[in-house]
Amino acid sequence: MITTVQEQGAFRMPDRLNAPHGGKLVNLIVTPQRASELQSESREWPSWDLTSRQLCDLELLMNGGFSPLNAFMSRADYESTCTRMRLQDGTIWPIPVVLDVSDEFANTIGPGSSIALRDPEGVMLAALHVEELWRPDRQEEAEKVYGTTSLRHPGANYLLERTNPWYVGGRLEGIQRPSHYDF
């Protein structure tokens, strides 16, 4: 918990802030030069248009909100999170953070390929360098993570009714944060 110190009627921030979860604050945004290189290279890559939920996950991965995660989960971290509520290294983590893709898209990628991750307007936000691609048992995931497969549970419902059947894990390089438009 961050506390302030009162000093002669004024408040100042403490000299030391709490460490981020897992001990490391992640920032996945690359330099402008690297972003330009990735945008140029990505012309040959398949693109994935992110859903609103995936967009939120990507933003939290890129800005450190999901520290210590620095990628969409590997299969080992996914399985460890589902069974133990911990990353493979033992760090507490309650729910998988994965990129789910369709059957059709999964057929176009594999380990070693790269994907341009785009917002709904087609703006490239990040590059995902695919390390793993697998088809999880989403019924088992719902049972382990939410304790139910009932579609009345909002988490289980989303997982079972709205996610795609394949998960992709791999290193991320952030190009830019998503835009949040005023209404």
Overview features:
6 helices; 8 strands; alpha+beta; two-stranded antiparallel sheet; globular
Given this structure, which CATH class of the domain at 26-135 and 167-174 is correct? Alpha Beta
Q: β content, as a range?
A: 15-25%
Shape, principal axes of CA atoms = globular
The major beta sheet can be summarized as:
6 strands, mixed
Using the CA coordinates, give the radius of gyration: 19 Å
Low confidence ranges: 1-9
Mean pLDDT: 92
Q: Give the tally of β-strands.
A: 8
Termini distance? 34 Å
- SSE string, helix = H, strand = E? EEHEHEHEHEEHHE
Contiguous helical run count: 6
**CATH architecture assignment of the domain at 26-135 and 167-174:** Roll
The CATH superfamily of the domain at 26-135 and 167-174 is Sulfate adenylyltransferase
Give the helix level as a range of percent.
Answer: 25-40%
What is the CATH topology classification name of the domain at 26-135 and 167-174?
A: Sulfate adenylyltransferase
Secondary-structure-based class equals alpha+beta
What features would you describe in this structure?
This protein has 183 residues and is α+β, with helices and mostly antiparallel strands. The protein has a domain at 26-135 and 167-174: Sulfate adenylyltransferase (Roll), CATH 3.10.400. Helix content is 30%, strand content 21%. The radius of gyration is 19 Å and the shape is globular. The two termini are 34 Å apart.
What layout of secondary structure does this protein have?
Elements: E1 5-7, E2 10-12, H1 32-41, E3 47-49, H2 52-63, E4 71-72, H3 75-84, E5 99-101, H4 103-106, E6 114-118, E7 124-134, H5 138-146, H6 154-162, E8 166-174
Parallel strand pairs: 3-6
Antiparallel strand pairs: 1-2, 4-8, 5-8, 6-7, 7-8
Helix pairs in contact: 5-6
